[in-house]
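Title: Prediction job returns without error message
Component: structure pipeline
Severity: low
Priority: P3
Assignee: unassigned

Description:
Job completed but the reporter wants confirmation the result is attached to the right record. Sequence as submitted:
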Amino acid sequence: MRAQIVTFVVMAAALGVGLSGQQAQKSSASARAPASAEATAGKTADKSAWSVPRMPDGHPDMQGVWANNGMTPLERPAQWGTRATMTDAELADLKKRAQKLIDGGDAFFADELILAALEGKTTFSSADTQTGNYDQTWLSERIWDNRTSLIIDPPDGRIPPPAPGAAERARAQAAARQGRGPADRAQDLSLGTRCVHSGTPNIRAGYQSYFDITQGPGVVALRTEMIHDARIFPIGGEPHLSSAIRQYHGDSRAHWDGDTLVVNTINFSNAGFRGSTDNLRLTEKFRRTAEDTLEYYLTIDDPTVWSRLWTLMIPLKKTGERMFEFACHEGNYGLRAILSGARAQEQSTR
């Protein structure tokens, strides 16, 4: 409890002093496509005239609400081979095929939509064969660009092969679960289902995928929309906590590298990011490149899971909107319903 109080005091301090450095946003009209050569020239001039807004301490102002609603898949699909980008014509064709899939039916999560369009599917069925998904109107509108993968390293745009012993460890874990149901006990369900936290890092696009950044002297706070997780990044030379102290979001320390905020996080507890272990070392970099764009780089390093580290880049877009609480209250009643449903299902098959 004392740690929670300290955390909220730090956040309150950041909120109190951080907002003074915010810059007024440009009119949304300047973001519209130009209708003439003169408009194009004007837009180019505006872009060249833009400079990084700064806080009173001189560091870049990254405050505000930023959205991860991109359509680019995490890994490069085989159809694009080694190409890091697609042509404008390919992008236009892909968007048309995706739009046909969007019109009605279940919602698409993560990379489901772009992969279905690439595979030439004309209909889509939810992976949840019992209840299905709610429809697409519940999700944010996705943003397209020409990139073929979020992963920029390795150059093939793919997650590296597993480290020696990782496959055997995964098989042993699967064998240990054989003979058990998916909900024999509450701990069998994910931390997200239990409304504990949504995972770090959180890279899922299009669904509760907003981030709120607040800056203050010597500290940055990053709040996620999903399950309203809050991470605090102390800036300076403080050492990490002892490895005996582990946290769901790890222990973060930050520093400035020029105009780039670099955050190093270790000492995870129940990390679980795409199969990672508590040995995960996460490096995040935040770099503001335009009035409405914050480049978010993540380097994933867990030598017990992957044969090499890998890096992805997500272009976060400033929305000008507020971020309201994601009240994940299902944990108050959902677990009881899931567990009782599992017991009833067991009785029906006996």
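Comment from assignee: result matches the submitted record. The radius of gyration is 22 Å.
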